[in-house]
Amino acid sequence: MIRITKNWATKLAEEFDKPYFKQLQQFLEQEYSAHTVYPAMEDIFAALNAVKFEDVKVVIIGQDPYHEPHQAHGLAFSVQDGVEVPPSLVNIFKEIESDLGITCIKSGNLTRWAKQGVLLLNTSLTVRRSQANSHHGKGWEIFTQKVIDLLSQRAEPLVFMLWGSNAQAFAPQIAPQHLVLKAPHPSPLSAYRGFFGCKHFSKANSFLVDHGKTPIDWH
């Protein structure tokens, strides 16, 4: 049931054979059979499936998927069309509108960003219903570190947006040719401590343009 495109599967093939990932698979089989887990099993790698490795221009790292019904669909901070926009994403839209002077589309489905090369990657790719961070320490962090390492090894400069302490823990492993932007997490608990006013979206677009790339339409 777990689906990943050949584009990423080829690059991550060694990870799937490692003991930690086999243990993670066993854990997930038990979790999905005994509990409600998000996202749906077929959407676990949706963030990777939405952007080819060579097309990634911006990486946004979240903590773990939304843990209430009908929200998580495999892209960090994103929800399906028709689902109420969660508070963290409301704050992301507020910062975009303030930073860029635009009005964001009302849908919380961020597939529109992924199609432009934005990888919306959670640190843990699964979570038990109503239990935030419940799959922390089960092996996902090793896997997502590998994804970030692969991207960091690219000579072509990328933008990494690291919001909150979980995401910022990846910063030391990111090579110097890339732009690393740090801010507090956009959740209502911390957004006023520096996420608002961080101007990450204009900074990212300026960096992309300076390196000959098309900027992201953050609507």
* Spatial gap, N to C terminus: 33 Å
Number of strands: 6
Number of helices: 8
Secondary-structure element pattern, one letter each: HHEHEHHEEHEHEH
The oligomeric state of the chains shown is single chain
Helix share bin: 25-40%
Strand order of the largest sheet: 3-2-5-6
Largest sheet: 4 strands, parallel
Structural class assignment: alpha/beta
Name the shape in a single word. globular
Q: How much of the sequence is in beta strands?
A: 5-15%
Low-confidence stretches: none
What average pLDDT do the residues reach?
96
The Cα radius of gyration reads 17 Å
Can you tell me about this structure?
This protein is α/β, with parallel strands linked by helices. Helix content is 36%, strand content 11%. The chain is built from eight helices and six strands; from the N terminus they run ααβαβααββαβαβα. The strands form two sheets. The protein has a four-stranded parallel beta sheet with strand order 3-2-5-6. The radius of gyration is 17 Å and the shape is globular. The protein starts with 5 loop residues before the first helix and ends in a 9-residue tail after the last helix.
